[in-house]
Amino acid sequence: MSVQAVLLPVFVQVALTFALLFWLGPARFRAVRSGTVGEEATLDDGAWPREARQAGNAFRNQFELPVLFYAITAFALITRKADLLFVVLAWVFVLSRIVHALIHVTSNEIRLRFPAYLVGAIVLLVMWVLFALAIIFAPILP
Q: Which of 11, 15, 27, 36 lies 20 to 30 Å (CA to CA) from residue 91?
Protein backbone atom coordinates (compact mmCIF):
# COMPACT_ATOMS: atom_id res chain seq x y z
CA MET A 1 0.00 0.00 0.00
CA SER A 2 1.10 3.55 -0.57
CA VAL A 3 2.26 5.70 2.31
CA GLN A 4 -0.63 8.08 1.59
CA ALA A 5 -3.20 5.28 1.83
CA VAL A 6 -1.76 4.10 5.14
CA LEU A 7 -1.47 7.57 6.66
CA LEU A 8 -4.81 9.02 5.55
CA PRO A 9 -6.73 7.33 8.42
CA VAL A 10 -4.09 8.69 10.81
CA PHE A 11 -4.61 12.20 9.46
CA VAL A 12 -8.37 11.84 9.96
CA GLN A 13 -7.83 10.59 13.53
CA VAL A 14 -5.57 13.56 14.25
CA ALA A 15 -8.18 15.89 12.74
CA LEU A 16 -10.81 14.35 15.03
CA THR A 17 -8.59 15.03 18.04
CA PHE A 18 -8.15 18.67 17.06
CA ALA A 19 -11.87 19.02 16.28
CA LEU A 20 -12.68 17.84 19.79
CA LEU A 21 -10.13 20.26 21.22
CA PHE A 22 -11.80 23.10 19.32
CA TRP A 23 -15.18 21.89 20.65
CA LEU A 24 -13.81 21.77 24.21
CA GLY A 25 -12.29 25.24 24.25
CA PRO A 26 -15.47 27.22 23.57
CA ALA A 27 -17.49 24.95 25.91
CA ARG A 28 -15.11 25.74 28.75
CA PHE A 29 -14.88 29.41 27.79
CA ARG A 30 -18.70 29.75 27.93
CA ALA A 31 -18.75 28.13 31.37
CA VAL A 32 -16.10 30.49 32.72
CA ARG A 33 -17.65 33.58 31.10
CA SER A 34 -21.10 32.77 32.44
CA GLY A 35 -19.74 32.21 35.94
CA THR A 36 -20.97 28.61 35.97
CA VAL A 37 -17.53 27.44 36.98
CA GLY A 38 -14.69 28.94 38.97
CA GLU A 39 -11.16 28.07 39.96
CA GLU A 40 -12.28 24.73 41.38
CA ALA A 41 -12.41 23.44 37.80
CA THR A 42 -8.61 23.59 37.62
CA LEU A 43 -8.45 20.72 40.10
CA ASP A 44 -11.77 18.96 39.58
CA ASP A 45 -13.15 18.08 36.15
CA GLY A 46 -16.49 17.41 37.85
CA ALA A 47 -16.83 21.15 38.45
CA TRP A 48 -17.38 21.82 34.75
CA PRO A 49 -20.93 21.84 33.36
CA ARG A 50 -22.11 18.74 31.50
CA GLU A 51 -21.30 20.01 27.98
CA ALA A 52 -17.71 20.86 28.91
CA ARG A 53 -17.23 17.55 30.76
CA GLN A 54 -18.51 15.60 27.78
CA ALA A 55 -16.20 17.44 25.40
CA GLY A 56 -13.29 17.06 27.82
CA ASN A 57 -13.91 13.34 28.21
CA ALA A 58 -14.20 12.87 24.44
CA PHE A 59 -10.95 14.79 23.90
CA ARG A 60 -9.11 12.89 26.64
CA ASN A 61 -10.34 9.62 25.17
CA GLN A 62 -8.37 10.37 21.99
CA PHE A 63 -5.18 9.70 23.97
CA GLU A 64 -6.16 6.20 25.03
CA LEU A 65 -6.81 3.63 22.26
CA PRO A 66 -5.59 5.93 19.47
CA VAL A 67 -2.08 5.84 20.94
CA LEU A 68 -1.94 2.13 20.09
CA PHE A 69 -3.31 2.95 16.64
CA TYR A 70 -0.56 5.49 16.00
CA ALA A 71 2.08 3.02 17.16
CA ILE A 72 0.88 0.14 14.98
CA THR A 73 0.64 2.40 11.97
CA ALA A 74 4.22 3.56 12.44
CA PHE A 75 5.45 0.00 12.98
CA ALA A 76 3.50 -1.31 9.97
CA LEU A 77 4.98 1.41 7.75
CA ILE A 78 8.53 0.84 8.98
CA THR A 79 8.32 -2.93 8.52
CA ARG A 80 6.30 -2.68 5.30
CA LYS A 81 3.49 -4.79 6.71
CA ALA A 82 0.74 -2.29 5.91
CA ASP A 83 -1.37 -4.00 3.25
CA LEU A 84 -4.92 -3.47 2.03
CA LEU A 85 -6.40 -5.31 5.02
CA PHE A 86 -4.40 -3.07 7.35
CA VAL A 87 -5.76 0.06 5.66
CA VAL A 88 -9.36 -1.22 5.73
CA LEU A 89 -9.04 -2.05 9.44
CA ALA A 90 -7.47 1.37 10.07
CA TRP A 91 -10.48 3.05 8.46
CA VAL A 92 -12.91 0.95 10.50
CA PHE A 93 -11.02 1.94 13.65
CA VAL A 94 -11.08 5.65 12.78
CA LEU A 95 -14.76 5.56 11.82
CA SER A 96 -15.55 3.89 15.13
CA ARG A 97 -13.65 6.69 16.90
CA ILE A 98 -15.63 9.32 15.01
CA VAL A 99 -18.93 7.68 15.92
CA HIS A 100 -17.80 7.26 19.53
CA ALA A 101 -16.78 10.94 19.75
CA LEU A 102 -20.03 12.17 18.18
CA ILE A 103 -22.06 10.16 20.66
CA HIS A 104 -19.81 11.36 23.48
CA VAL A 105 -20.40 15.06 22.78
CA THR A 106 -24.12 14.78 21.94
CA SER A 107 -26.44 12.30 23.66
CA ASN A 108 -23.61 10.56 25.55
CA GLU A 109 -25.87 7.51 25.58
CA ILE A 110 -23.72 4.68 26.95
CA ARG A 111 -25.82 2.03 25.14
CA LEU A 112 -24.70 3.63 21.86
CA ARG A 113 -21.25 4.80 22.89
CA PHE A 114 -19.94 1.50 24.26
CA PRO A 115 -20.57 -0.53 21.08
CA ALA A 116 -18.70 2.12 19.06
CA TYR A 117 -15.82 1.90 21.53
CA LEU A 118 -15.89 -1.90 21.48
CA VAL A 119 -15.74 -2.05 17.67
CA GLY A 120 -12.66 0.17 17.72
CA ALA A 121 -11.00 -1.84 20.48
CA ILE A 122 -11.62 -5.17 18.73
CA VAL A 123 -10.45 -3.85 15.36
CA LEU A 124 -7.30 -2.48 16.97
CA LEU A 125 -6.67 -5.81 18.69
CA VAL A 126 -7.05 -7.61 15.35
CA MET A 127 -4.61 -5.16 13.76
CA TRP A 128 -2.03 -5.88 16.46
CA VAL A 129 -2.51 -9.68 16.30
CA LEU A 130 -2.19 -9.72 12.50
CA PHE A 131 0.87 -7.48 12.67
CA ALA A 132 2.50 -9.63 15.36
CA LEU A 133 1.85 -12.79 13.33
CA ALA A 134 3.24 -11.17 10.19
CA ILE A 135 6.42 -10.22 12.04
CA ILE A 136 6.82 -13.52 13.91
CA PHE A 137 6.31 -15.62 10.81
CA ALA A 138 8.05 -13.28 8.36
CA PRO A 139 11.03 -15.60 7.77
CA ILE A 140 8.62 -18.46 7.02
CA LEU A 141 6.07 -16.67 4.86
CA PRO A 142 6.99 -15.13 1.52
A: 27
